[in-house]
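User: I'm curious whether this sequence folds into something compact or stays loose and floppy. Could you predict its structure so I can see for myself?
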Amino acid sequence: MESPGTVEDTDMRDRVQAPIDRLPNELTLEIWSYNISHRNTWRIVPFIVDMSWVSRRWRAVALNAPELWSDIYLSFWNRKVGVVEAQLQRSKDLLLSITVDLNFKRPPSKRAHLLPTCVSELRQIMPLLRAQLPRWRSLDVTIHSWTLNGNPSGHNQAYYDIILRPLSQAAAPKLESLSVQYVCDLNNVLIFDGGMPSLSSLTLCRSIDIGLCHLARVNSLALHDSLGRIPLGEFHRIVDACPSLRHLSLNGACVHFPPGYLELPVLELPGLITLSLTAVPLFNDWITRRKQGILHSLSLPNLRTLYLCACPLDILPHSSTSPYPSLEKLHVAVDENGTRSVRRPGFRKILSRFPSINILSSDSDSLLQALVWDKGAPDAVCPSLHTLIWTSASAIDNSADLLRVARRRRLKAGHPLVELHVTHPAYRSMAPSVLKQLREVVKLQIRN
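Assistant: Here's the prediction. I'll summarize afterward.
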């Protein structure tokens, strides 16, 4: 039997113990994992290092969780050689996720002297990481440093020499994801010529080359604009070299349309199910005097999801029938110079070509207006529409009555709108009366 003093001491420890210290180790690890996945780019040391310094118990928990040390993040602020050495040791034999984020624009002049220090420390860190090439699972490199006058910094070349050049003949047998965005005016930079047999996700800009022979297993491809653009013919060759491609993302003017491009054959992509276009412009063909976009050169019969962000709606193919008969989800984000100028008739014309979609996402009032079925119109647009997602952070107050009209008319026509998803900021800014009206006609969901 324990003495009364021992029991009293135990009760005292239980009373003074912080509530967070009473959490099971498994729950503590879940919380830490979430914070690591939502990293703060301004941290001087990784989150898990800070947590391992809080108490003896937390240090023991952290040191016995190698998965928390396998995410290595390097930036202008986070580049300690000792920290990287500790992460390599404590992650044991787990695969590594490596991020090198050197994306900073016009650093304050009082900090400009730190750039050479960053170069010096990266020269020590990168050989340590290259020695672990067989453990690399993902590599994300961004080199976008700029001078005070807005031009690419001369340090970009030094970063390239340290980070990318030594990878020209490298082999990464376990590398699954590769993302390289590098601002430069050089010719194509060859990396990983030794092979990446496990590569499935790829993000590149114009100045990076990994060889078409390494794309056979890539199912997710993203191309970004840089100081150069990919000619349309080369873009066709890249995409054609990805027989497993399922997801394609284009950002900016990353593809160059030469004169006479309409004479090129249409590229058939029957396996593509998701397409994302961000700020992709239209191009004029000076021979045919026609203005078209990248979608006019692609055939996507099995496309399921289409994202359009800050793109002119004329980028969609001109056709009397639906260009994507299997489309289920359409996401449209507008901007001041692009689709915001498109009024209700323009949106209705676009939506009428996608009768199969059941989920529509947008931040445009004009698009909401297009959903109202005019009594004189032969059919309601998007007859299969089930869920509407409002992605704007602004309130939907002015459109509440519009949604009620759309719901009533579509329900009468046999095409009911069932769910409405709104962002949390929009939800908080809505008047209680508006929320009550919305809940009367649709199932209201809150999204982060």
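Summary: The chain has four domains: 1-69, 71-218, 219-327, 350-448. The first strand starts at residue 71 and ends at 75.
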